Amino acid sequence: MYRSHPRLQGLSLIFLVPLFFNFHTSYGDVGSDASQFPSSKFFAAASHGIWDEGAACGRQYSVRCISDSTPDACNQNQTIQITIVDHIGQEASVPSAYNTNMFLSATAFRTIANSSTSSSPNINIEFQQ
Q1: Domain with 74 in it: what CATH number?
Q2: What keywords is this UniProt entry annotated with (predicted)?
Q3: What does DSSP assign to residue 48?
């Protein structure tokens, strides 16, 4: 299993997908109980490298947009706290999901990425637990 080096800050490509998260209660995540979601609506699904066999469910990460191919795509100096609520499993239907560390909720994505200039739902982020 891939594990990232704990001293490295996370740099990743994230992909925003208007998808329905498949919440696997057997992994110990939030299941279908909407009351378990953050009221801020800042949540994400995690890749296998972050998921840690379900131990990441409920973990919080500080996340900020650091770059994109489109100039001014990031909302500068905007850092948010997201909560991991699901796993980006093998069943991910979006091809780029396999190169993605997190799928952010739409609210989280719009907060750190300038949607008026970013035509791509892909941005590079920095994250830290």
Answers
A1: 2.40.40.10
A2: Signal
A3: H
Of the candidate ranges 40-44, 89-93, 111-115, the one whose mean pLDDT is the lowest: 89-93
Q: 48-79: per-residue pLDDT in tens? A: 889 988 899 999 999 999 886 677 888 888 99
**Which residue from 23, 16, 10 is spatially nearest to 107, judged by alpha carbons?**
16
Interatomic CA distance for residues 6 and 35, integer angstroms: 31
Phi-psi region of 54 (alpha: psi -120 to 50; beta: other; left: phi over 0): left
Range of the domain at 94: 10-128
Number of domains in the chain: 1
Phi, psi (degrees; rounded to nearest 5) at 70: -95, 125
Q: Which of 96, 6, 100 is nearest to 44 (CA)?
A: 100
Q: What is the pLDDT of residues 26-35, one digit of tens each?
A: 344 555 566 6
Residue 89 in any domain: the answer is: yes
- Euclidean distance between CA atoms 48 and 89, whole angstroms: 7
Which CA distances in Å does 128 have to 39, 84, 97, 107, 124? Answer: 21, 12, 20, 19, 14
